[in-house]
C-alpha cells in the first residue's frame, strides 16, 4: 500500500461521513472528563457513553469527589455501559491518583497515562489526540477498516498503530481515529459499510 493511495482513501472516508457526530472523547470542559469518558466508551456506543458521562459529571464535579465516591454509587450511574463493574473500579482508582498526584489534571504523557488504572493504549492515544497530540487510537472501527483496506496486517493495537504511522503523514495521525469512527457510525449496517469500503478499495 502506497501512502498517497491510502491518503486518498482516508479523504474519501471523511467525505462519506456525517458531520456533527459527537464522539465520546469530545466537547468536555475539563481534561479529566475527556479521559474518564474515553475509558467508559470501550465496547460501548458513544451516544450511551456521553449520556452516562453527563450524569456522572453532574453528580461528581472533581476527580477528588469521584475518587471518594462509593463503588455502588458509581455503578448505579454507569450501569448502561458495558463492563460497568470493572470500569467503576478503574474510574474510582484512576481519579484518586489524578487527584493526589496530578491535581486532577491528567498527564499529557503516554507512559504516565497507561500507568493509570483502566487506561490502555487506545484510551491514552485518543485522549492525547484530543489535545493536539500526534497519536492514533486503535479501536474496533480503526482496526476493522484498516485491515479491510489493507493498510495493515497487524495482529494487535500496537502493530496496527505502527503500520498506520508509517503509512500516513504525521499531520493526519491525530485525525485518523475520528475519521474512521465517524465513518463507522454513519454507516451502521456492516453490509453498507463493506459496499462503500469496496468502492474505496478501488481508488488508485
Characterization of this structure:
The protein has 2 domains: 3-16 and 134-201, Helix-hairpin-Helix base-excision DNA repair enzymes (C-terminal) (Endonuclease Iii, domain 2, Orthogonal Bundle); 31-130, Hypothetical protein, domain 2 (Endonuclease III, domain 1, Orthogonal Bundle), CATH 1.10.340. It is globular and about 55 Å long. The chain has 204 residues and is an all-alpha fold. It has helices at 3-15, 31-40, 46-59, 63-68, 71-78, 84-101, 110-113, 121-130, 140-148, 157-167, 173-186, 190-201. The chain contains 12 helices and no strands.
Distance between the termini: 10 Å
CATH class wording of the largest domain: Mainly Alpha
| Annotation, overall tally of beta strands | 0
| Rg, nearest Å | 17 Å
Into which percentage range does the β-strand content fall? under 5%
Instruction: Using the 3D structure, state the CATH architecture of the largest domain.
Output: Orthogonal Bundle
CATH fold category name of the largest domain: Endonuclease III, domain 1
Number of helices: 12
Order of helices and strands: HHHHHHHHHHHH
Shape: globular
Structural class: mainly alpha
Integer average pLDDT:
96
Largest sheet: none
Helix content: 55-70%
Number of domains: 2
Runs in which pLDDT lies below 50 for 5 or more consecutive residues are none
Going by CATH, what is the homologous superfamily of the largest domain? Hypothetical protein, domain 2
Amino acid at each position: 500500500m502506497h501512502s498517497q493511495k491510502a491518503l486518498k482513501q482516508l479523504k474519501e472516508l471523511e467525505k462519506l461521513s456525517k458531520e456533527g457526530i459527537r464522539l465520546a472523547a469530545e466537547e468536555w470542559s475539563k481534561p479529566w472528563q475527556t479521559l474518564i469518558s474515553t475509558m467508559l466508551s470501550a465496547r460501548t456506543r458513544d451516544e450511551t457513553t456521553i449520556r452516562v458521562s453527563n450524569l456522572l459529571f453532574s453528580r461528581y464535579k472533581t476527580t477528588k469527589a469521584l475518587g471518594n465516591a462509593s463503588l455502588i454509587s458509581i455503578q448505579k450511574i454507569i450501569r448502561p455501559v458495558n463492563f460497568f463493574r470493572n470500569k467503576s473500579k478503574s474510574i474510582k482508582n484512576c481519579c484518586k491518583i489524578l487527584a493526589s498526584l496530578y491535581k486532577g489534571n491528567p498527564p499529557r504523557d503516554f507512559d504516565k497515562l497507561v500507568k493509570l488504572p483502566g487506561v490502555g493504549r487506545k484510551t491514552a492515544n485518543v485522549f492525547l489526540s484530543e489535545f493536539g497530540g500526534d497519536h492514533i487510537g486503535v479501536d474496533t472501527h480503526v482496526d476493522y477498516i484498516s485491515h479491510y483496506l489493507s493498510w495493515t496486517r497487524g495482529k494487535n493495537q500496537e502493530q496496527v498503530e505502527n503500520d498506520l504511522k508509517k503509512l500516513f503523514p504525521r499531520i493526519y495521525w491525530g485525525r485518523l481515529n475520528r475519521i474512521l469512527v465517524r465513518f463507522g457510525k454513519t454507516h451502521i449496517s456492516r453490509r453498507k459499510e463493506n459496499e462503500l469500503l469496496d468502492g474505496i478499495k478501488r481508488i488508485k
